[in-house]
Each structure stands twice: as C-alpha cells, then as structure tokens.
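lol ok so funny story. i was supposed to be doing the assay writeup but got distracted and ended up predicting the structure for this chain instead. priorities right. anyway since i did it might as well share w the group, maybe its usefull for someone
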Amino acid sequence: MSDEEREGTRERLAALGEIAAEIAHELRNVLQIVSSSAYVARQDIERGDATAAPDCTKDFVVFPTNLPGTKGGQASIIAYDKLYSGTPATSAFCGSSSPSVYWSYNTNFNASGGKTTGTIATSPILSADGSKVAFIENNGGSGAVLHLLKWNAGDGGAINTAANPNIATAWTSCPATGSCMISITFANANADTGSSPFYDYTHDALYAGDDVGVLHKFVNVFGITGATPSESTSGWPVARSHTMLDARWLAMPTASTVPPSRRAA
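and the output, tada:
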C-alpha cells in the first residue's frame, strides 16, 4: 500500500468515528452497538476503485440496530449516505450537517414471510457491487436466520419508519425494481449470537458458526453462481470443538476473497 493509500485509509477511519457518534445518537443506543456491528460500506461501483474520491451517494455505511424490526416502526437494519458531512453544512463535502438515512428495513421474517423475533447482533457483509447485504438474525424462534437483502434507495426513510422488503426464495423472483429479501433458517435450528458471516467473493459462498460450535455453509448467496441461495447439507454443517465459533477465523481476506472495491476499506 502506498503512502497516499495509507493516508486515504486513515482519513476514512477518522470519518467513520465521527459518523458513528452521529448515528449512535439517532439509534438511541450505546456506541458499543455501532462499533462492534458496523461494516464499512465503501463503494465506488462504476470503477471498483477503493482509492477513488469520496462520493456522497455511492459511499454508505450499514448498521444493524440490534433491535427487532416493525413495519412503519423500528428498523432492524439501516444504511446511511452523505457520510462526509459536518458543521457548518455549507462547508461540508456533502453539503449537510449529518449523514442521511439511505434506507431502513424491518427484516424480521422467515423464508415464507412469517414473523421472527430475533435481532441482528453481528456485522453484515456486502456483495461486491454493494447492491445486496447479507446478515444473520441471532434466533428467529426456530434458530438463526441468514437474511439476504437487495435494498432499494429511499425505502423506509428513517430509523422509526422501516419498510418491509418483498419476500422471495430466489433472486430471479425478485421484482425488477424495489427491494427483496431471501431468508434461510440454519439447518440445525441453533442460534448464532457471536459469529458474523464470512463471504467468499470468488465462489459466492458464505460461512457462519452457531452457538454450539457448528459451522454452516451457504451457496449461491448473491446470485453469482446460481439463482437460488441455500444451505449446503452434503457434508455440512460441520461440528467444531469450540463452544462458540466465529467464522472469521477461517481465513484472513485475501486478493481472491475480497474484491478490489473492498480491500482498502
């Protein structure tokens, strides 16, 4: 990494700290929720260039609220854009005094659209182009639920006016415009309160551990290798000796698993 890239990374991390303070106030929750669950969504979609100049709409952050969602009420997951804001707004890069809600959703649904009761306590992960988000509801009532969300800018509009995504079982059944969400309950009905999803960008596969030390694998996650996401059951899930497994131990991100637009984030 060059000196210029290191400086850019330092500046983005500093900006994230300021953003976290703004958003934590709006979430009406402690900073721990933001700092432990934030996934920096650094996107420059057209060029896939992590060192590109900041952008007020293409750069956004995604946060779980760690609260159950309600349609027209509390969001379970939320995104903010206009990250490069400040006071006075007239001198800020994005021309605003604070970040703006990009979208907000109630995602408490199972595969058939039934209501679930869990929360998102770990970090989400983005698709390479930023158009989809994967995250885990810790216990929907019958075990942890992997949610795969195709978001639509402007949905929800605020943390307390969350929208419901359209429910789908395959990416090909999602509407051409608008949001949709595919949900997969963990095969063994165990909860996942500590393992964030680990995504393999090369093979469109996702791994997550549950609370009894079992590792789960999901395929066709973002529709790159196939239209229908599912949990692998041939040789999976795999039991481990740990009481609680964080799937991030599997491998550090490398050039083969992290797309160019994500490596410097």
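Residues 24-42, 242-256, 260-265 have pLDDT under 50 and may be disordered. The first helix runs from residue 3 to 27.
back to the writeup now i swear
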